[in-house]
Protein backbone atom coordinates (compact mmCIF):
# COMPACT_ATOMS: atom_id res chain seq x y z
CA UNK A 1 0.00 0.00 0.00
CA UNK A 2 1.21 3.45 -0.88
CA UNK A 3 1.53 5.86 2.02
CA UNK A 4 -0.42 8.98 1.25
CA UNK A 5 1.10 12.39 1.69
CA UNK A 6 -0.73 14.83 3.90
CA UNK A 7 -1.34 17.10 0.96
CA UNK A 8 -3.12 14.34 -0.85
CA UNK A 9 -5.50 13.73 2.01
CA UNK A 10 -6.22 17.40 2.36
CA UNK A 11 -8.43 17.72 -0.66
CA UNK A 12 -9.79 21.07 0.36
CA UNK A 13 -10.92 23.24 -2.50
CA UNK A 14 -9.10 21.23 -5.08
CA UNK A 15 -12.18 19.24 -5.85
CA UNK A 16 -15.04 21.07 -7.41
CA UNK A 17 -18.41 20.16 -8.72
CA UNK A 18 -19.82 22.09 -11.62
CA UNK A 19 -23.50 22.82 -12.05
CA UNK A 20 -25.32 19.53 -12.60
CA UNK A 21 -27.33 20.73 -15.58
CA UNK A 22 -24.57 22.59 -17.38
CA UNK A 23 -23.73 20.87 -20.65
CA UNK A 24 -26.04 17.98 -19.79
CA UNK A 25 -27.81 16.21 -22.62
CA UNK A 26 -30.67 13.73 -22.41
CA UNK A 27 -30.82 10.77 -24.75
CA UNK A 28 -34.16 9.01 -25.03
CA UNK A 29 -33.98 5.25 -25.46
CA UNK A 30 -36.79 2.81 -26.24
CA UNK A 31 -39.56 1.87 -23.76
CA UNK A 32 -39.36 5.15 -21.85
CA UNK A 33 -35.77 4.71 -20.74
CA UNK A 34 -33.39 7.64 -20.92
CA UNK A 35 -29.83 8.70 -20.15
CA UNK A 36 -28.57 12.06 -18.97
CA UNK A 37 -24.89 12.62 -19.69
CA UNK A 38 -22.97 15.48 -18.12
CA UNK A 39 -19.27 15.35 -19.04
CA UNK A 40 -16.69 16.76 -16.64
CA UNK A 41 -18.98 17.35 -13.68
CA UNK A 42 -16.32 16.68 -11.07
CA UNK A 43 -13.00 18.39 -11.63
CA UNK A 44 -9.68 17.52 -9.99
CA UNK A 45 -11.06 14.07 -9.38
CA UNK A 46 -7.65 12.46 -9.81
CA UNK A 47 -6.86 13.16 -6.18
CA UNK A 48 -10.24 11.87 -5.11
CA UNK A 49 -9.64 8.68 -7.07
CA UNK A 50 -6.36 8.07 -5.32
CA UNK A 51 -7.79 8.75 -1.87
CA UNK A 52 -10.76 6.47 -2.45
CA UNK A 53 -8.62 3.65 -3.83
CA UNK A 54 -6.66 3.67 -0.59
CA UNK A 55 -9.23 4.64 2.03
CA UNK A 56 -12.41 2.81 1.16
CA UNK A 57 -12.72 -0.59 2.90
CA UNK A 58 -13.20 -2.42 -0.38
CA UNK A 59 -14.75 -5.87 -0.35
CA UNK A 60 -14.59 -8.65 -2.86
CA UNK A 61 -18.08 -9.05 -4.21
CA UNK A 62 -19.97 -12.33 -4.26
CA UNK A 63 -23.20 -12.38 -6.11
CA UNK A 64 -25.87 -14.91 -6.82
CA UNK A 65 -25.91 -15.49 -10.55
CA UNK A 66 -28.34 -18.07 -11.89
CA UNK A 67 -27.95 -21.12 -9.64
CA UNK A 68 -24.51 -20.44 -8.20
CA UNK A 69 -22.60 -17.79 -6.29
CA UNK A 70 -19.74 -16.49 -8.39
CA UNK A 71 -17.01 -13.94 -7.90
CA UNK A 72 -17.85 -10.65 -9.54
CA UNK A 73 -14.46 -9.38 -10.65
CA UNK A 74 -14.42 -5.97 -9.03
CA UNK A 75 -14.34 -4.57 -5.50
CA UNK A 76 -17.30 -2.81 -3.93
CA UNK A 77 -18.50 -0.96 -0.88
CA UNK A 78 -22.10 0.00 -0.21
CA UNK A 79 -22.94 3.08 1.88
CA UNK A 80 -26.45 2.76 3.26
CA UNK A 81 -28.75 5.69 3.96
CA UNK A 82 -27.33 7.82 6.79
CA UNK A 83 -23.90 6.21 6.69
CA UNK A 84 -21.17 8.85 6.33
CA UNK A 85 -19.52 8.93 2.93
CA UNK A 86 -15.73 8.80 2.84
CA UNK A 87 -15.31 12.34 1.47
CA UNK A 88 -17.50 15.44 1.89
CA UNK A 89 -17.53 16.04 -1.87
CA UNK A 90 -19.48 12.81 -2.31
CA UNK A 91 -22.24 14.03 -0.01
CA UNK A 92 -22.20 17.34 -1.88
CA UNK A 93 -22.56 15.44 -5.14
CA UNK A 94 -25.47 13.38 -3.81
CA UNK A 95 -27.24 16.49 -2.50
CA UNK A 96 -26.67 18.41 -5.73
CA UNK A 97 -28.19 15.52 -7.68
CA UNK A 98 -31.15 15.38 -5.30
CA UNK A 99 -31.75 19.10 -5.78
CA UNK A 100 -31.38 18.95 -9.56
CA UNK A 101 -33.80 16.04 -9.97
CA UNK A 102 -36.19 16.89 -7.11
CA UNK A 103 -39.12 17.74 -9.36
CA UNK A 104 -38.72 14.83 -11.70
CA UNK A 105 -37.69 12.15 -9.22
CA UNK A 106 -39.81 13.22 -6.27
CA UNK A 107 -37.44 11.79 -3.66
CA UNK A 108 -33.78 12.27 -2.75
CA UNK A 109 -30.83 10.06 -3.56
CA UNK A 110 -29.93 8.34 -0.29
CA UNK A 111 -27.44 5.50 -0.85
CA UNK A 112 -24.05 5.31 -2.51
CA UNK A 113 -22.61 2.18 -4.04
CA UNK A 114 -18.95 2.31 -4.91
CA UNK A 115 -17.18 -0.01 -7.32
CA UNK A 116 -13.47 -0.34 -8.03
CA UNK A 117 -12.41 -1.87 -11.34
CA UNK A 118 -8.71 -2.49 -10.78
CA UNK A 119 -7.85 -3.02 -14.45
CA UNK A 120 -9.39 -4.10 -17.74
CA UNK A 121 -10.09 -7.61 -16.44
CA UNK A 122 -12.47 -6.28 -13.81
CA UNK A 123 -16.03 -5.91 -15.02
CA UNK A 124 -19.69 -6.29 -14.23
CA UNK A 125 -21.82 -8.51 -16.43
CA UNK A 126 -25.10 -7.47 -18.09
CA UNK A 127 -27.77 -6.74 -15.50
CA UNK A 128 -30.39 -4.20 -14.46
CA UNK A 129 -30.53 -2.77 -10.95
CA UNK A 130 -33.81 -4.52 -10.27
CA UNK A 131 -33.59 -5.34 -6.58
CA UNK A 132 -36.42 -3.51 -4.83
CA UNK A 133 -38.85 -0.95 -6.21
CA UNK A 134 -36.95 -0.62 -9.47
CA UNK A 135 -38.32 -4.03 -10.48
CA UNK A 136 -41.73 -2.45 -10.95
CA UNK A 137 -41.23 1.31 -10.98
CA UNK A 138 -39.24 3.91 -12.84
CA UNK A 139 -36.27 5.25 -10.93
CA UNK A 140 -32.99 7.07 -11.46
CA UNK A 141 -29.46 5.86 -10.84
CA UNK A 142 -26.76 8.51 -11.05
CA UNK A 143 -23.21 7.36 -11.70
CA UNK A 144 -20.10 9.47 -11.22
CA UNK A 145 -16.94 8.00 -12.74
CA UNK A 146 -13.33 8.51 -11.76
CA UNK A 147 -10.17 7.20 -13.40
CA UNK A 148 -9.97 5.10 -16.52
CA UNK A 149 -12.67 5.60 -19.13
CA UNK A 150 -14.58 2.33 -19.08
CA UNK A 151 -17.69 2.89 -21.16
CA UNK A 152 -21.09 1.97 -19.80
CA UNK A 153 -22.68 -0.47 -22.25
CA UNK A 154 -26.47 -0.68 -22.46
CA UNK A 155 -28.78 -2.97 -24.41
CA UNK A 156 -32.56 -3.35 -24.55
CA UNK A 157 -33.79 -6.49 -22.80
CA UNK A 158 -36.11 -7.35 -25.66
CA UNK A 159 -33.25 -7.52 -28.13
CA UNK A 160 -31.58 -5.02 -30.37
CA UNK A 161 -28.11 -3.57 -30.59
CA UNK A 162 -26.16 -2.37 -27.59
CA UNK A 163 -24.92 1.17 -27.17
CA UNK A 164 -21.88 2.53 -25.37
CA UNK A 165 -21.80 5.70 -23.31
CA UNK A 166 -18.50 7.29 -22.37
CA UNK A 167 -18.02 7.32 -18.61
CA UNK A 168 -14.72 9.14 -18.30
CA UNK A 169 -12.98 10.84 -15.44
CA UNK A 170 -15.37 13.20 -13.68
CA UNK A 171 -18.32 12.41 -15.93
CA UNK A 172 -21.90 11.98 -14.70
CA UNK A 173 -24.26 9.49 -16.33
CA UNK A 174 -27.82 9.16 -15.05
CA UNK A 175 -30.00 6.21 -16.07
CA UNK A 176 -33.65 7.15 -15.79
CA UNK A 177 -37.21 6.27 -16.68
CA UNK A 178 -37.70 2.55 -17.22
CA UNK A 179 -33.98 1.95 -17.84
CA UNK A 180 -33.53 -0.63 -15.04
CA UNK A 181 -36.57 -2.65 -16.13
CA UNK A 182 -36.36 -2.46 -19.90
CA UNK A 183 -32.61 -2.20 -20.49
CA UNK A 184 -29.56 -3.95 -19.07
CA UNK A 185 -26.17 -2.37 -18.54
CA UNK A 186 -22.62 -3.63 -18.08
CA UNK A 187 -19.01 -2.60 -17.73
CA UNK A 188 -17.35 -4.96 -20.17
CA UNK A 189 -13.84 -6.32 -19.89
CA UNK A 190 -11.22 -4.79 -22.14
CA UNK A 191 -7.89 -6.14 -23.36
CA UNK A 192 -6.58 -2.57 -23.47
CA UNK A 193 -4.16 -1.62 -20.73
CA UNK A 194 -6.23 0.60 -18.45
CA UNK A 195 -5.73 1.88 -14.94
CA UNK A 196 -8.27 1.74 -12.14
CA UNK A 197 -11.77 3.14 -12.42
CA UNK A 198 -14.08 3.94 -9.53
CA UNK A 199 -17.78 4.50 -10.01
CA UNK A 200 -20.10 5.94 -7.41
CA UNK A 201 -23.76 5.09 -7.94
CA UNK A 202 -26.36 7.16 -6.13
CA UNK A 203 -29.75 5.51 -5.70
CA UNK A 204 -32.99 6.24 -3.89
CA UNK A 205 -34.09 4.24 -0.85
CA UNK A 206 -35.27 0.72 -1.54
CA UNK A 207 -33.48 0.33 -4.85
CA UNK A 208 -30.34 -1.74 -5.47
O1 LIG B 1 -19.59 0.93 -12.57
C1 LIG B 1 -20.58 1.36 -13.16
O2 LIG B 1 -20.59 2.42 -13.78
C2 LIG B 1 -21.87 0.58 -13.13
C3 LIG B 1 -22.02 -0.26 -11.90
C4 LIG B 1 -23.32 -0.99 -11.87
O3 LIG B 1 -24.00 -1.11 -12.84
C5 LIG B 1 -23.81 -1.55 -10.61
O4 LIG B 1 -23.03 -1.65 -9.65
O5 LIG B 1 -24.99 -1.88 -10.52
FE1 LIG C 1 -25.99 -1.62 -12.31
Structure description:
- The protein is of the alpha+beta class.
- It has a single domain (20-203), classed as Alpha-ketoglutarate-dependent dioxygenase AlkB-like (Jelly Rolls).
- It is built from four helices and 14 strands.
- It has helices at 6-9, 45-55, 88-105, 179-182; strands spanning 16-17, 25-28, 33-38, 42-43, 59-65, 68-79, 111-117, 124-127, 141-147, 152-156, 163-165, 172-177, 183-187, 197-203.
- The chain has an eight-stranded antiparallel β-sheet. Strands 8-13-10-11 form a four-stranded antiparallel β-sheet.
- A hairpin with a 2-residue loop joins β5 (59-65) and β6.
- The longest helix is centred in the middle third of the chain and has 18 residues, at 88-105.
- The radius of gyration is 16 Å and the shape is globular.
- It starts with 5 loop residues before the first helix and ends in a 5-residue tail after the last strand.
- Bound molecules: 2-oxoglutaric acid and fe (ii) ion.
Amino acid sequence: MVTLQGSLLDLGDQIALGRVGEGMTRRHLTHGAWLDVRPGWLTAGDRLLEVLVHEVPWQAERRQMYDSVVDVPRLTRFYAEGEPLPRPVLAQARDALSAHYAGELGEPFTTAGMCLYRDGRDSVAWHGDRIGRSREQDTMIAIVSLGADRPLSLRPRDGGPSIKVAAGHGDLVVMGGSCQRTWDHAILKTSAVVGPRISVQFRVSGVR
